């Protein structure tokens, strides 16, 4: 009995020791399990954070994709509209070019017709010029003969004036010189009339009458300057009178010396 009790006690001690060992192992496993749980929890949190970050990035990518898709659609629509507008512009340009080509062709035909008409007109004008020249020559000869016949009988200033003006118009310079001589012969220059005569000489290029009038003005310059008609002279005539007065004074001083 005693022996059996010891055996039971030893057995119980062994079992207790085993239980103690198992308890410690279980405690150690529990600690490891808790540690592992903490690690898994941390990993899970980190994984969740990564997933949240990835989800946010995915959402951003989706938004960017949608934005790019919208931009692509807008660009496609704009490109389509531009293509349509370009085609319409090209069609208008082709139509306008065709119209311009038709207009140019029409203008070329008109220019060709006008050139033909102009050439015909030139020929007609040339004939007309020849005829006009012939008529003018005949008229000049007739006018010259009439004037030559009447010059010896010119006795008045007005008749000389008529011949001067007609000769200037038709280019009879010799006849104009003869008539100018009769005009000067029948003209009595005075302070009141010299300015008008000078202006008349300037109008018809009567150089002799012009010089006679300027010489008269130089001799009585003060009286002429007081006349109301002097201011009506052209600047060129006033300059010539001034030069003539200065030249006259210079010659007078030279003679006095």
- Biggest pleated-sheet summary: none
Spans where pLDDT lies below 50 across 5 or more residues: none
Question: Structural class, judged by helices and strands?
Answer: mainly alpha
Enumerate how many helices there are, as a single number: 7
| Amount of beta strand | under 5%
Describe this structure as you would to a colleague.
The protein has 257 residues and is mainly alpha-helical. The protein is 88% helix and 0% strand. The chain is built from seven helices and no strands. The chain is rod-shaped, with a radius of gyration of 64 Å. The mean pLDDT is 79.
Fold topology:
Layout: H1 2-150, H2 157-170, H3 173-185, H4 194-203, H5 207-219, H6 221-226, H7 235-256
Helix pairs in contact: 2-3, 4-5, 5-7
Brief summary of the model shown:
By secondary structure, the chain is mostly helical.
Salient structural properties:
7 helices; 257 residues; rod-shaped; mainly alpha
């Amino acid at each position: 009995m005693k022996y059996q009790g010891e055996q039971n006690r030893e057995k119980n001690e062994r079992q207790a020791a085993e239980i103690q060992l198992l308890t410690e192992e279980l405690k150690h496993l529990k600690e490891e399990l808790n540690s592992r749980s903490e690690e898994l929890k941390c990993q899970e949190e980190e994984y969740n954070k990564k997933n949240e970050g990835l989800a946010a990035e995915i959402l951003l990518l989706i938004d960017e994709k949608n934005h790019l898709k919208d931009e692509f659609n807008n660009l496609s629509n704009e490109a389509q509209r531009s293509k349509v507008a370009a085609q319409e512009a090209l069609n208008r340009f082709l139509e306008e070019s065709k119209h311009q080509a038709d207009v140019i062709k029409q203008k070329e035909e008109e220019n060709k017709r006008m050139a033909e008409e102009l050439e015909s007109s030139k020929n007609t004008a040339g004939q007309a010029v020849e005829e006009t020249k012939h008529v003018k020559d005949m008229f000049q000869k007739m006018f010259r003969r009439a004037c030559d016949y009447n010059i010896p009988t010119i006795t008045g200033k007005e008749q000389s004036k008529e011949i001067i003006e007609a000769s200037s118009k038709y280019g009879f310079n010799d006849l104009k010189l003869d008539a100018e001589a009769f005009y000067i012969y029948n003209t009595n220059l005075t302070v009141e009339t010299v300015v008008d005569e000078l202006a008349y000489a300037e109008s018809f290029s009567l150089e002799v009458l012009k010089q006679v009038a300027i010489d008269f003005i130089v001799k009585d310059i003060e009286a002429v300057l007081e006349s109301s008609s002097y201011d009506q002279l052209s600047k060129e005539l006033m300059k010539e009178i001034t030069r003539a007065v200065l030249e006259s004074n210079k010659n007078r001083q030279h003679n006095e010396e």
